[in-house]
């Protein structure tokens, strides 16, 4: 059930605050010193993959998530249609 | 002369996002510092979209501009416009017609160095965005005022600008830390109290830089730009006027506590109070 607009309108500021905290945590990781690392990784991984498979640069997503004890590097390469070996 | 050069401070007023109050704040802080006896120049870096001249009420006195000085077509002294109300306040206008590439890194460095010798404060009004004009405006700064509205897109852009201040400036490249201050503008205490607007502490927590001041939303600010006068000159006793004076005192190193505007008055009070304010 939807809350009456009188209630849901109150307190949109906490939502703003939470959304900002999430997006900035992500952007700081990309723009900070680790941003260079992500860029370097992206270029080199791309070069390796492109040697064997035809890929579209725009279809590559690289994400670095920094945790306290463990960080993850996520590489998402979309290859639409059939995999066409690069010549 | 040497002593003067060491004392001068180059301040960049920046934000990333447009329309948050950089130019208004440059004019008000510059005038407030000059009114307290400091020798101040405000420099418009928004080449192609100059507006500091208009906000300062000097639009009809512009003969030469920053680009003319950089390209050697005019001497610095010819381009500087001295304020008619406060004689320790000067303006270096931006060019209106030429393209943005007219600002060269070497030219900006030379002009800023020359201004340092003549003034106590060199206040650089940055254009919006993160392109050449904005990075050149912050390039030689000793300290930065980050103008932010309590609104998501402004806070996000301020965060980005803080990142640039910490990496793309001369100070940062020398491995030194740039002093950065938050100037929260268009703040509406009543809406913040109702949870409709980010509160001061929310913005401070997210951006984690010290607070220089909170400028309340006020019709005096619009009135000031309408008549071409910094608000500290046109309405020195108005809430925004006082807030800018206090911010200027903090820039000079005074440990003045920042009062967060509070909305305590009832609706009846507000209705009647508005007429007076």
Question: What can you see in these coordinates?
Answer:
The complex is a heterodimer of chains A (87) and B (277). Chain A is an alpha+beta fold and 87 residues long. Helices cover 51% and strands 14% of the residues of chain A. Chain A contains three helices and two strands. In chain A, a hairpin with a 6-residue loop joins strand 1 (60-65) and strand 2 (72-77). The mean pLDDT of chain A is 74. Chain B is built from 15 helices and eight strands. By secondary structure, chain B is α/β, with parallel strands linked by helices. In chain B, helix 2 packs across helix 14 (239-251). The termini of chain B are far apart. At the A-B interface, helix 2 of A face helix 8 of B.
**Strand proportion of chain A:** 5-15%
Q: Which stretches of chain A are poorly predicted, pLDDT < 50 over at least 5 residues?
A: none
Biggest sheet strand order of chain B reads: 3-4-2-5-1-6-7-8
Task: Give the helix proportion of chain A (percent range).
Answer: 40-55%
Note the gap between the termini of chain A: 58 Å
Average pLDDT figure of chain A: 74
Helix content of chain B: 40-55%
DSSP E strands of chain B, number: 8
Oligomer designation: heterodimer
CA-atom Rg of chain B in angstroms: 18 Å
How many strands, which pairing sense, and closed or not: the largest β-sheet of chain A?
2 strands, antiparallel
Q: Largest interface, by Cβ-Cβ below 8 angstroms: which chains and how many residues each?
A: A-B, 17 and 16 residues
Give the amount of beta strand of chain B, in percent: 15-25%
Provide the gyration radius of chain A in Å.
20 Å
Structural class of chain B: alpha/beta
**First-to-last CA distance of chain B:** 46 Å
> What global shape of chain B is seen?
globular
The main sheet of chain A orders its strands as 1-2
Summarize the helix and strand pattern of chain B as letters. HEHEHHHEEHEHEHHEHHEHHHH
Number of helices of chain A: 3
Rough outline of chain A: elongated
């Amino acid at each position: 059930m939807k809350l009456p607009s009188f209630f849901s309108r109150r307190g949109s500021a906490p939502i703003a605050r939470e959304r900002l905290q999430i997006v900035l945590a992500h952007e700081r990781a990309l723009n900070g010193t680790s941003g260079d690392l992500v860029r370097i990784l992206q270029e080199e991984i791309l070069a390796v993959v492109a040697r064997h498979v035809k890929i579209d640069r725009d279809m590559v997503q690289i994400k670095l998530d920094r945790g306290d004890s463990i960080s993850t590097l996520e590489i998402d390469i979309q290859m639409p249609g059939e995999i066409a070996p690069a010549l | 002369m040497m002593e003067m050069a060491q004392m001068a401070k180059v301040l960049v007023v920046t934000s990333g996002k447009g329309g948050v109050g950089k130019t208004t704040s440059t004019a008000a802080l510059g005038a407030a510092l000059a009114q307290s006896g400091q020798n101040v120049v405000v420099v418009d870096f928004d080449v192609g979209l100059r507006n500091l001249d208009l906000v300062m009420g000097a639009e009809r006195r512009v003969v030469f501009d920053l680009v003319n000085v950089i390209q050697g077509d005019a001497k610095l002294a010819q381009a500087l416009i001295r304020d008619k109300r406060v004689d320790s306040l000067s303006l270096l206008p931006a060019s209106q017609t030429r393209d943005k590439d007219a600002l060269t890194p070497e030219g900006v460095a030379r002009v800023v160095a020359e201004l340092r010798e003549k003034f106590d404060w060199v206040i650089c009004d940055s254009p919006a965005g993160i392109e050449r004009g904005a990075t050149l405006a912050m390039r030689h700064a000793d300290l930065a005022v980050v103008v932010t509205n309590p609104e998501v897109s402004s806070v996000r852009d301020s965060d980005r600008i803080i990142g640039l201040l910490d990496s793309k400036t001369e100070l940062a490249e020398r491995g030194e830390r740039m002093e950065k201050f938050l100037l929260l503008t268009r703040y509406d205490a009543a809406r913040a109290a109702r949870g409709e607007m980010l509160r001061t502490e929310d913005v401070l927590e997210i951006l984690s830089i010290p607070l220089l001041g909170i400028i309340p939303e006020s019709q005096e600010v619009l009135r000031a730009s309408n008549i071409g006068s910094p608000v500290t000159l046109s309405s020195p006793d108005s809430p925004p006027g006082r807030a800018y004076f206090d911010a200027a005192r903090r820039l000079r190193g005074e440990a003045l506590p920042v009062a967060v505007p509070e909305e305590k008055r009832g609706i009846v009070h507000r209705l009647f109070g508005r007429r007076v304010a």
